[in-house]
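Researcher: Good morning. I'm working through a list of sequences from a screen, and I'd like to move beyond sequence-only analysis. For each chain I'm collecting a predicted structure so we can compare shapes side by side. This is the next one on the list. No need for commentary yet; just the structure.
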Amino acid sequence: MNNKIVIGLIALAAFFPLPFAASQAQAQQSAYSAATPRIDGFDVEPVAKAAPGNELMFTLYGSPGGTAAVQIGGATGGVVLVETEAGVYEGTYTIRKRDKITVASTATVNLRLGNRVASAILDEPLVGKASAKRPAPAASSAAAPTIDRFD
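Model: Good morning. Structure tokens for this chain:
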């Protein structure tokens, strides 16, 4: 008798699927697909010479909560950027002996949120004069405010 009850319950379960299981999966998919990543800025601290041991420091400004990675032309590896504060990602690539990074090398960053990706190509050189810190303002503009970052 117990076997007949179990078989009957299994048969009924086939006719009455759980209605909430599919809606949860759809809600998760739509939450991921609704988030479109954006890149607001992509910077590097260039090196004076592409010699082994020198470090390229990358910074990405964009959508918070994503994962970011940089691919460097001529490099044997990439670099994963870590979100140091909301929407700011940073990472360092140490140049290796096998790397063939030149003045013409480019860097591409990908910012992923869920199943969507935004990409940007660096618009400054990786190799060249080591970037100097921001120059001191001229005496005539010393009192003028400056904008360091805009989100």
